[in-house]
Specification:
about 400 residues, 3 domains, alpha+beta, single chain, three-stranded antiparallel beta sheet, 9 helices, elongated, Helix Hairpins, five-stranded mixed beta sheet, Heat Shock Protein 90
Length: about 400
């Protein structure tokens, strides 16, 4: 905003300078040429002093020359009186051109005033309707980065930032919900660990007690030793069940993946994907082709479907050899299959069953940044949308296929 204020000051200064310069030029011209009748009068006086009769036929401003008499001072027009060879003469003249100059100056000032008003009005509009609302939003990303998620973003009806403000506030709300869920998840995990730890202590104490008794030879009969061994095995099974619960809890959904089922056309899904990745992949010299398809109506969440396809393509970019990425379409059992295939797959066939597991990364992921959640999220979203996703390797090409249900 400070930079814009400086620009505004410069613009106002330029407008004032233009006004001053234009008026100075026009006034100067008026001063120089505003009294041309004097030139004509001086010429006539010179001729008359030389004995010639006054000839006003070639004069533009002088209308008459009158020698001194009874009605010498009765003229209503503008005039000049001169003495020539001892006699007085009255030179009548008109000043229409001077009035024209004045009118021209007024017209130019009005035009410059209108232009200045329009320029200042546009700059005020930009300042009030665009820059000021944007300045109010400039601190929002910084506050979000610090974790300040409680203050809502003030809504605005601005045609320029209305949707942007709404999106930022939705982002803030989602981040706040995610933060609350993470805290709740941490609390639940901590309570689970405390509970399981307490439950494990009982069978663990029994095992230690049985082991100590056996080590001291308190049970001499074979039948009693067998009974104690079975008890130890039972307590070990109990501990194993608790450990299984802990493992199961650690594998539970860690993300809040909500879908909003609706209807949309396949072209709506693919148009944005094709436009974005055609430009992106051309920059990195990767071939990108999208096969033709028959448009149809799908029953899914459009935003989540875009997220799935984007995750698949990003994986193809990250783990392929950068030569080519293709998208093809097929139809089977009332479903549309969208297959994303990339060249240069270095993943072994034995890793295919695990690529949709959470936090799992294949042997080809070394040196690449990632969390191992991309395809896991894709599978969870597709299942929530009553679809499916699967992958396969064929002749060095990795192919991931998303299955969407038609309506």
């Amino acid at each position: 905003m400070k930079a814009f204020n400086r620009i505004s000051v410069v613009v106002v200064a330029v407008i004032i300078a233009v006004f001053a310069a234009a008026n100075a030029i026009m006034l100067s011209d008026r001063n120089d040429n505003g009294r041309p009748y004097r030139v004509e009068i001086n010429r006539l006086v010179h001729e008359m002093k030389n004995g010639s009769a006054p000839d006003i036929s070639g004069c533009e401003y002088v209308t008459s020359v009158t020698e001194y008499g009874d009605d010498f001072y009765s003229s209503d027009s503008d005039h000049v009186i001169r003495e020539i060879n001892g006699a007085l003469y009255r030179f009548d003249y008109k000043t229409d051109n001077v009035a024209g100059k004045t009118e021209m100056i007024l017209t130019v000032n009005v035009i410059l005033g209108v232009m200045a008003t329009v320029i200042i009005a546009v700059m005020l509009y930009i300042r009030v309707k665009i820059l000021k609302p944007f300045e109010q939003l400039s601190d929002v990303p910084y506050e979000l980065s610090k974790g300040n998620l409680t203050a809502p973003v003030k809504e605005t009806k601005s045609r320029f930032f209305g949707r942007f403000v709404w999106g930022v506030d939705m982002l803030r709300e989602n981040m706040e919900k995610q933060k609350e869920r993470e805290l709740e998840l941490q609390k639940d995990k901590k309570m689970l660990l405390l509970s399981l730890s307490h439950d494990i202590k009982t069978p663990l104490s029994a095992i230690k007690l049985y082991s100590k008794a056996l080590s001291k030879g308190l049970y001499t009969s074979a039948e009693k030793q067998l009974e104690i061994a079975e008890n130890i095995n039972a307590k070990a099974d109990e501990i194993e069940s608790y450990v299984s619960q802990m493992i199961t809890a650690s594998r539970e959904d860690i993300l809040s993946l909500e879908v909003s089922m609706g209807e949309f056309y396949l072209s709506q899904l693919m148009s944005g994907i094709k436009q974005y990745y055609t430009e992106k992949l051309s920059l990195i010299k990767t071939g990108f082709t999208v096969d033709s398809y028959t448009d149809c109506l799908l029953g899914c969440d459009l935003d989540r479907s875009i997220e799935v396809i984007q995750n698949i393509i990003e994986n193809a970019i990250k783990y392929g050899d950068g030569k080519s990425i293709d998208i093809s379409f097929s139809e089977e059992d009332g479903c549309i299959l969208i297959a994303v295939r990339n060249s240069g797959c270095s993943l072994p066939d034995t890793d295919i069953p695990h690529i949709f597991d959470s936090f799992w990364r294949g042997q080809n992921a070394s040196g690449e940044k990632g969390s191992g959640l991309g395809l896991y999220i894709c599978r969870q979203l597709m299942h929530k949308m009553n679809g499916d996703i699967f992958a396969g390797i064929n002749d060095g090409f990795m192919c991931v296929t998303a299955v969407f249900r038609k309506i």
